[in-house]
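Reminder to self: tokens first, then the designed residues, so the page reads top to bottom the way the pipeline ran.
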């Protein structure tokens, strides 16, 4: 797919495991990540989330 990469490709790019990328997608920490059937697709220009984003996400979730 043009403009998107797979979980495996993102894992190699960011130096983490594919499972970690799947978790980041599920937690909505990768901007633009979308589920297509059973796989996640990630925009090729997406950046690896930082721990700071996780804290911000947690604070946002608590406000709901």
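Designed residues (64 positions):
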């Amino acid at each position: 797919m043009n403009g998107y990469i797979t979980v495996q490709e993102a894992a190699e790019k960011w130096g983490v495991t594919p499972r970690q990328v799947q978790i980041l997608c599920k937690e909505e920490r990768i901007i633009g990540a979308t589920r297509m059937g059973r796989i996640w697709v990630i925009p090729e220009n997406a950046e690896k989330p930082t721990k700071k984003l996780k804290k911000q996400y947690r604070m946002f979730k608590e406000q709901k």
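The first helix runs from residue 7 to 14.
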